[in-house]
Amino acid sequence: MAQALLSIQILPKVKPGEESIPYVDRAIEIIKASGVPYRVGPLETTMEGELDELLDIVKRMNAAMFEKGSPSVISQIKLVVDGERNASMARLLQKYPEGQ
């Protein structure tokens, strides 16, 4: 199967006055528990792995938002799929040291 990078920003609908942070924290817990390499950024989280596995994680993230009480969810996704298995965060970031 194809190697992929998938960046996601998950936006659960919440009740007026309710914080979305606990929902986002839950989504990140699902990514972490999956075991795929990932990097949390200020606006999105990027995962690396097999395309099917990453899409399954997205499905679990969305399901968790409903379980927490969100009536609807927007998941904004950026996806790179490489059939030659060259998709990697390390390769794309090699010339940018952390912290800059």
TrEMBL record:
<feature type="domain" description="Thiamine-binding protein">
    <location>
        <begin position="7"/>
        <end position="94"/>
    </location>
</feature>
<dbReference type="InterPro" id="IPR002767">
    <property type="entry name" value="Thiamine_BP"/>
</dbReference>
<dbReference type="InterPro" id="IPR029756">
    <property type="entry name" value="MTH1187/YkoF-like"/>
</dbReference>
<protein>
    <submittedName>
        <fullName>Thiamine-binding protein</fullName>
    </submittedName>
</protein>
<comment type="similarity">
    <text>Belongs to the UPF0045 family.</text>
</comment>
<dbReference type="GO" id="GO:0005829">
    <property type="term" value="C:cytosol"/>
</dbReference>
<dbReference type="InterPro" id="IPR051614">
    <property type="entry name" value="UPF0045_domain"/>
</dbReference>
<dbReference type="Pfam" id="PF01910">
    <property type="entry name" value="Thiamine_BP"/>
</dbReference>
